[in-house]
Structures are given as C-alpha cells and as structure tokens.
Amino acid sequence: MRRLSGASFLLYILIPLLGPSNGADTWTLDHPLADDGQPLISERGSFALGFFSPSGSDSRYIGIWYHKISVQTVVWVANRQRPVTGSHGSLSVAANGTLIITGENSTVVWSSPPLALSDPVAQLLDDGNFVVTEADANASDPNSFAWQSFDYPTDTLLPGMKLGWNLTTGFNRPLTSWASAIDPAPGEYTFGIDLRGDPQVFEWSGTRQVWRGGPWNGVRFAGIPPMVSYNKISVQFFVDATQVVYVFHTIDASIVSRLVMNHSGTAQRLLWVDDSKFWNLIWYFPMDPCDTIFPCGPNAVCDTSRSPLCGCPQGFQPKNPTNWELRDGSDGCVRKTEVDCRNGTDGFVLVSGAKLPDTSSSTVEWVGTTLDQCKAKCLKNCSCTAYAQANISGSGSGCILWSTNLTDLRVYGSGGQDLYVRTAAADVGMYSSVSLSLDRWLREARSRRQLGAEAC
Predict the structure, then answer these.
(1) Where do the EGF-like domain residues begin and end (predicted)?
(2) Staple 25 to which of 16, 123, 330, 443, CB 3.0 to 4.6 Å?
C-alpha cells in the first residue's frame, strides 16, 4: 500500500479507490470524504467507513461496517449524538490530525480530540480500527496511533479491541447501547468493568446495576459459563499496574464474531453464518431470573432448577419467614448459629457450581496461596465470611476473601465453581445438600410448631 501526504492541505482525507481487477488501494488527497462519495475500504476489504443511515431513518452518520457481509452491520459510529441532516456531510482531517465531521453550511457536528501532528494520515485498518498517525509512522504499531476508534467503542467489541480501563490515564472503554434499532445515540445500557475489589463485568441501566458478570477466574468471568463453550474464540483478561482490560480474538481468521450491548438490554455474543446470511446468537445475558441483580437477598442462593428460586445455604435460614412463605426471598438469609472465631471451632460448607458472590468489597491475594492456605487465612480473620480460589485454571491459585454478606449468589447446573462459606461448628454437616430449600425449611418449621403444641 502506498501513502501520499501533503502538509500544504488544510483539510484532507485519505480515500481509497478499490481497483476492480487487482484489489489494490490508491490513496488521494484531493477532497474530503463526502456523503455522496465512496467509503473508505480497509486494505483486505474487511471493513468500510463512510456515511450511512440506519434502516427507516434519514439521519446520516459516519460509521464503520463489515464490507464483505451482505447484511449491513455497523460496528462503530462517530457522530452518534449529532447526525447530519440532508446530503451535505463530509469527513475531513485537519492539518494537526483532528478528525472533523461537518454538516449543512459547514457546521461542525463532531470532532475527535485535538492532536498535534505535523503530517497526519488517516487509515481504516483491516481489524476495523480507524486510526490517525504521522505519515511516516508504522500503522501496524499501536504505539504510533495518535488517535484510534478502538478507544471510543459504541455498542460493539471487535477482536483485538480492549474493554476496560487504562489505569495510567484513568480512561475507560465501556460499550454503550444504541438508543433504539434505528438511533445510534447513546442508549440506556452500558457494559463494562467495575474496578472495586476484585474487578468484575457489569451491565448498567443508567447508574443502576442490572446484571453482574462477576470476576475473572482465570478461564472466564464467573457469571458467564458459556464463554468457554466455543473453542474458536480466545479470551484474555489483563490486570496489572497499567490496565484492567478484557480482549478476545478469533482463532480461525474465517470466523467473524462480535460482542454487542444491545439496545434492548442484553449483552450478546454473535457469529456470522455466511451460508445462511445471518448473525447467530451463541450466548446472551441476562438469561434467566437468577441473572437479575441481587434476586434473593443477602446470603441467599438463587437456583433456577428449584421452585421457589431462592434458598438458604447450609447453616442459614430465612431472615423473614413470613415473606419467604409468600415466595419473597429479598430479605435473604441469616445464620442459624453465630460463628465462634475466638475458639477456632468454625468450619466451612461447600456451595458448588456457584457464580461467586459480588466481589466489590472482597480482597484478593495471589502470592503463595493454595486452597488450604485460603481456608487458613479466612479462619484467622474473624470478619471473613467466605473464600474461593481466585484462579481456577491449571491447579488453581490465589484467594478471594469476603468479609461482608454474600450477595448476588447463584448456582449453575454446570460451569460454576466452588465457594466455601463460613459456618458455625454446630451447623456443619447438618445436611448433605449444599442449600436448604424453602420447602424443607417450611417442613421443619411446621414440625417444630407441632412438637411445641404436643409439649403443651
């Protein structure tokens, strides 16, 4: 590919003309990208950038979409809050490298952050990233990007994009849904990473949490078991002094996949099926009633295989029996017997197949911590209420320690992990079942009442 530059141009854009015979790109600097012009096409033809209108709308936006997919699927929008009306829009690059979208009467409707380049060029890369660099920079080196669309995602995460935080600058990259199917303005729902405690993925409606994907456990997010069900996608989660980010890649170059925060409030993993010409939904969340944020109250367990959904772990009982009889478990569970840390008699009960409780207030220890050491650390801390392995890959490593009530705890038929809940010695081994169902608790309560009446 050949790049041309011209410092004398005040505003310019690089526009490729895809050759019909050999597919080569030719770059020119003679005019901005106009609404009635050809879109920018990435080198191998994977993505296009240009003006588009959502179905049923006359508003015009600069967006990026899959060039080789017959169903136009927009993955990024620049001017999502201020569309261009009419057909007088244009996209330009200022002499310092700032991208500018203008509408009628050359009114600026969107611009990228100010840059300070001397000889800038703009390029749509074949991974769908739209970048601005110096003309002599290596466009394959992300460190050369003065600006990139991957830093400003809309509702879609593409392979290689980072979801999450740059801790050095405090810059966050969440997904934000469209307002509706035909309006790419920022919508009600966002999907991103919460840094508190052990970092987790969440979905928010405005500022209200509506779904929790849980912490990363070395294999997947604890609340998204299907993440590992498709072996053509590799996933990574990086936590260090500079970043907390999630990234995915497709192992097979022929696989086209995206992660979307849908305008209806569902996070979706989709695969393109070229033979059938449709996007195949392979998993989504929230998926069931137990995915609702905090469905059963503190220290309760949500289980979709049981009716009612909410139950108490071994050694716990409903806090509000009257409401539980009415199938309302929002008050949660309380201990049957208080723990006795000073005498060292406490034990742990296993909740298997668990989506780990909310880790916003938990602590994580990584160095020299086996599962037995996690247990010992929890027993030594009188405020510790539960522990789990932080990383379940390989032989396991690290500890997550909770010192508060356990909230948003659920179990899966498959795909969960082990959680160890602190329990008084008197309640350890009371039942072989991990959780106490409401029906069992009611039977016991009725039996106690009956015995009391006979004693009288």
Answers:
(1) 286-322
(2) 16
